TrEMBL record:
Pfam families registered for this protein in UniProt: ACR_tran
Transmembrane segments annotated in the record for this chain: 12-30, 331-350, 357-377, 383-404, 436-458, 464-486, 522-541, 841-860, 867-887, 893-912, 951-973, 979-1005
Key words, A-Z: Membrane, Transmembrane, Transmembrane helix
Name under which the protein is recorded: Cation transporter
InterPro entries: AcrB_DN_DC_subdom, Acrflvin-R
Length: 1014
């Protein structure tokens, strides 16, 4: 085939050019995003039920929802958590479930359940989790001093949000920190008492004044008109002018007996930026959008906002596109330095400038054509797929060097240019195909991992397969074509031979080779002993998910563990920021209940998340220590967690599950275990290092106990008492003013006093209008209660979180402890999922090794020779572990990718070396008539000389191309550095392995013994 294609250079060249043009066109249509659009198989149902306790939300809301959801198709797990005023139900599905259909089904079931849920509760929100739910940027909107916050909230909701959503590529704009305008009616109790008016009279007057006719029409001749009442309320002044009639028949305006004002609704949460109250807008991109095109549009829009709305400050924060830019920059760096170093190394080794030019053309050509595969497999350009391309670039350079060196060697042997190109490609064709197949055999099975990891590896596997297959196409067709065209007018004498550097390296190789083969048994034994020694260094490596990236920002998650309101929460955060003033560059906080539609985390009024950005790492560490001391001294009850601010990777990979969780359920009843009983049992728990889960976290509460006997004696109804308490302590909604889509609630607001005073000063009215103080019928007490009620399929449970090594070894003791107390004990947590992932990885690894063996057995037509390649892998892995340990780098996702890159190159070198030995051995036996032992000795020696140049060039080029990352700084360098150390360590040992271990192992597997004389 190569002969046929080289005979038609113009047709082949034009075909490749057409491929390149077509690929560029398709590349422009590819979506560019931070992460692949992964459907996480989870749906969260969020409940917001104001003025409700956790027990009430669990019993009246979450329990009916759980019962309605158990029949969902593909449902794997179901859990719920009820807190004060909020609750959520988390549904986890099998990963093969079509989440768009599951989302529709969940919404349909919620609609059916509406009648069984409380009438005064808003419809539960159904949130579907997707990697695109991670916002690409946050826009801070801060009203300037003196500007009405409610007006800015309306501006954000009605203008800013809509203008951002109109931008190309923006899918959703989410808002937190809104504050609504309300009309508050505060009764003047002394005046109302003097006039004999009650709050019920005031409420009735407002409702009557805001009533509408229900679609009544009248006829006027041949015309028909719809009626409306002209007395409908529109402003606070209209409310104040309403008449209210007393029991004696006197009528006064409502403003005489109550203060009517426009004000802000009592907030349940705030957003702070630099310590000031404001709003935050999170921007989410469309799946098919290009992030690098969407972000400039957002920046332009923000500049227009600054010009149009001078009463508001705008600022963009937490731009996630920096991760994508880091990935793109890394790929550009790999291409640039890969090409430069390949040129330099080829020139140093060959002294020829035309050969590097060929590689300089083939690298970008392969990369561009690979994007055509992206288009047909519906793969976006993201950090994962880009890392796959970077992974394949090493193999691409490797293939190019091998083919060009082989063609050059054929020319040196005296073949004509055309025949040298054909023979040079054909000789290594099968070996290169096998090396690509073995690399894919190691990597592609990772796609079958379950969960998010498998979905991410799909993009990477497709990108690796694309660039490797394209590299073969380029190596077999484009490279010999370019070589033929560039050297067409050059005779053999004009082509420079090997450089002095390589000749010196060749002499050194021969000396070491002869010494090793003088005692081959001992040499091979030493190499085999190196395998366990090198692999043992893995015990000294720290295992992490992602490499530690130097971050100058932290996320502080805290729970005050006190029954405070949102305003008190805000004041404490502002006071804290005041003490830290000047020590941070950016401060952002979401506290209390979040208003985000897509927020699926824990929601409680007494909680807060504080994001701080620092100028350097020293400030970050100092402030973190200062915060720990501050909370230890001033708020010992508060729960404080300080960690690096999560990026998009962290948000996708981090699990909200505890590491190992013990779930406890009472067998006698479905009620939670009482706090006093649980505290006693905790003292007898068989393990230390145990923390309480959400269902066991305690908070204080006030309990009202009504005197039913006394109420009956005075002829008072319990419903009247409850209504009075709601009006007194809650944000009692009287009615709404609705006009042109704007809703302004009218709320009854009483004096902001402590509850004991309010009970003494307020009354409930009996027969003939007799007033009785509320505290006559209500006794109160303080008590502790659980802040959350947690449940699963089987009902309410309470959990303990264990932080111990090998937790499964303690299960028997925990079960025994539970049986003694008549408790049902279950185990859950991330630990079990990690164990399942490890089992899958081990199975996939075995499949990969078998595939590798089968491919090599077919290539070499031998059952023993593939073992040589298999045994080279542990040496390379051990070398990578050694360099990771010496450099203080952890074993993480990026270093694991580096291992795959390194193993691909090592396998390639070993396969070509064995393939060359096999061919030379046959040649020496058939053409030169040597005996089998003599032919083998000569083949081993000569194959080492032939393959020395491409093996060393490939390793040195790859190492030098990656080395700038070691000395680089920033996010991209931090991400790629573990990968680079893995490759450098593996190739350093791997080069030695390919040069010396392969011939030694081949010698012994051939049944030969004894030393070799040269």
């Amino acid at each position: 085939m190569v002969r046929f294609l080289l005979s038609r250079p113009i047709a082949v060249g034009m075909t490749f050019l057409a491929f390149l043009i077509f690929s560029v066109i398709l590349f422009r249509t590819l979506p560019i995003s931070l992460l692949p659009p992964i459907d996480v198989p989870q749906i969260v149902i969020k409940v917001n039920y104001p003025n409700s306790s956790p027990e009430s939300i669990e019993q009246n809301v979450l329990e009916p929802i759980r019962e309605g959801m158990v029949t969902l198709n593909g449902l794997q797990d179901l859990e719920s958590k009820a807190g004060s005023e909020v609750g959520d139900v988390r549904l986890t599905f099998d990963f093969q479930t079509r989440m768009e259909l599951a989302y529709i089904e969940v919404n349909e079931k919620i609609d059916r359940l509406t009648n069984s849920l409380p009438n005064d509760m808003p419809r539960p929100q159904v949130v579907r989790i997707n990697s695109n739910d991670i916002p690409i940027v946050r826009l801070q909107i801060i009203p300037k001093e003196g500007v009405d916050f409610a007006e800015v909230s309306m501006l954000t909701e009605n203008v800013i949000k809509k203008r951002l959503e109109q931008l190309e590529g923006v899918a959703l704009v989410d808002i937190n920190g809104r504050q609504e305008k309300v009309i508050t009616v505060t009764p003047n109790k002394p005046v109302m008492t003097g006039l004999g008016l009650k709050e019920a009279d005031l409420i009735s007057a407002i409702k009557d004044g805001n009533s509408e006719l229900p679609g009544i029409s009248v006829e006027d001749g041949q015309f028909r008109y719809y009626l409306r009442l002209a007395s409908r309320l529109e402003t606070a002044e209209d409310v104040g002018n309403l008449p209210i009639r007393g029991p004696s028949g006197n009528t006064v305006t409502l403003s005489k007996v109550a203060d009517v004002n426009h004000s802000l609704a009592k907030p349940t949460g705030f957003h702070l930026f630099q310590g000031k109250e404001g709003l935050v807008v999170t921007v989410h991109k469309q799946t098919s959008a290009k992030m690098n095109e969407t972000m400039p549009l957002i920046h332009e829009a923000v500049e227009l906002f600054k010009a149009d709305y001078e009463q508001v400050d705008f600022e963009l924060t937490q731009d996630q596109s920096s991760l994508l830019n880091a990935g793109i920059n890394n790929l550009q760096t790999s291409l640039l330095f890969g090409g430069l170093f390949a040129f330099a190394i080829l020139f140093v080794f060959m002294g020829n400038y035309r050969t590097p030019i060929i590689i300089g053309i083939s690298l970008p050509a392969s990369l561009v054509i690979s994007f055509m595969v992206f288009y047909f497999f519906d793969i976006s350009i993201n950090v994962i797929s880009l890392s796959g391309l970077a992974l394949g670039l090493g193999m691409l350079i490797d293939n190019a060097i091998i083919v060009l060196d082989n063609i050059n060697r054929k020319r040196e042997e005296g073949l004509p240019l055309f025949e040298a190109c054909v023979s040079g490609v054909n000789e290594v064709q099968s070996a290169l195909i096998s090396s690509v197949l073995t690399t894919l055999a190691v990597f592609v099975p990772l796609v079958f991992l379950s969960g998010v990891a498998g979905a991410l590896f799909y993009d990477q596997a497709v990108s690796v397969a694309a660039i490797l297959c394209v590299s073969l196409l380029v190596a077999f067709i484009l490279l010999p074509l370019l070589y033929f065209l560039l050297f067409k007018n050059k005779t053999k004498s004009t082509i420079k031979e090997d450089s002095r550097l390589f000749k010196g390296m060749l002499r050194g190789y021969k000396i070491i080779y002869q010494k090793l083969f003088s005692r081959p048994g001992l040499s091979l034994l030493v190499l085999f002993l190196m395998i366990p020694l090198l692999l043992a260094t893995v015990k000294f490596l720290k295992v992490e998910g992602l490499p530690p990236i130097e971050k100058f920002d932290v996320l502080i998650s805290l729970d005050w563990n006190e029954s405070i309101d949102a305003s008190q929460n805000r004041d404490r955060i502002q006071n804290l920021l005041g003490q830290l003033e000047g020590k941070f560059t950016v401060a952002e906080s979401d506290l209390g209940l979040r208003q985000f539609i897509l927020y699926e985390g824990e929601n409680a009024i007494q909680q807060a998340d504080l994001y701080l950005m620092f100028a350097n790492n020293n400030d970050k560490e100092n402030v973190s220590n200062q915060l720990r001391d501050f909370f230890r001294q001033n708020f010992p009850k508060a729960s404080l967690e300080i960690k690096d601010a999560p990026n998009a990777f962290d948000q996708l990979f981090n699990s909200n599950k505890p590491y190992f969780e013990v779930r406890l359920k009472q067998l006698e009843s479905q009620k939670p275990i009482s706090p006093s009983q649980m505290n006693l049992w905790m003292e007898e728990f068989p393990l230390a290092g145990v923390s309480k889960g959400p269902g066991l976290q305690e908070g204080s509460s006030v309990i009202f106990k009504t005197d039913l006997e006394k109420l009956a004696l005075y002829g008072l109804g319990v419903d009247d008492l409850i209504t009075t308490i709601e009006q007194l302590f809650g944000n009692y909604l009287i009615t709404d003013i609705r006009q042109f889509g704007e809703i302004i609630p009218i709320q009854l607001r009483n004096d902001q006093l402590d509850f004991q005073t309010l009970l003494k000063r307020n009354y409930i009215y009996g027969e003939e209008g007799v007033a009785y103080a509320l505290d006559e019928f209500i006794a109160f007490s303080y008590d502790s209660h659980y802040k959350f009620v947690t449940s699963d399929r089987a009902g309410i449970y309470q959990s303990l979180n264990l932080d111990v090594s090998e937790p499964e070894s303690h299960e028997a003791d925990i079960l025994s402890w539970g049986v003694e107390r008549n408790l049902a004990v279950g185990f859950a947590g991330q630990y079990f999922q990690d164990q399942e992932t490890i089992k899958q990885l081990m199975g996939i690894l075995m499949i990969s090794i078998l595939l590798l063996y089968f491919i090599l057995a077919a290539q070499f037509e031998s059952f023993l020779q593939p073992l040589i390649v298999v045994f080279t892998l542990p040496l390379g892995v051990g070398g990578a572990f050694l360099v990771l340990w010496l450099s203080g780098t952890s074993l993480n996702v990026m270093s694991a990718i580096g291992l795959v890159v390194m193993l691909g190159i090592m396998v390639n070198d070993a396969i070509l070396k064995i393939d060359t030995i096999n061919r030379l051995k046959v040649t020496y036996q058939t053409k030169e008539g040597l005996l089998a032992r003599e032919a083998l000795v000569k083949a081993l020696y000569h194959a080492g000389e032939i393959r020395l140049k491409p093996i060393v060039m490939t390793s040195v080029t790859t190492i030098l191309a990656l080395s700038p990352v070691v000395f680089g700084a920033g996010l991209g360098a931090d991400l790629q550095r573990p990968l680079v150390f893995s490759v450098i360590g593996g190739l350093t040992i791997g080069t030695f392995t390919a040069l010396y271990f392969v011939p030694l192992a081949y010698w012994f597997l051939s049944g030969q013994r004894g030393s070799v004389k040269f």
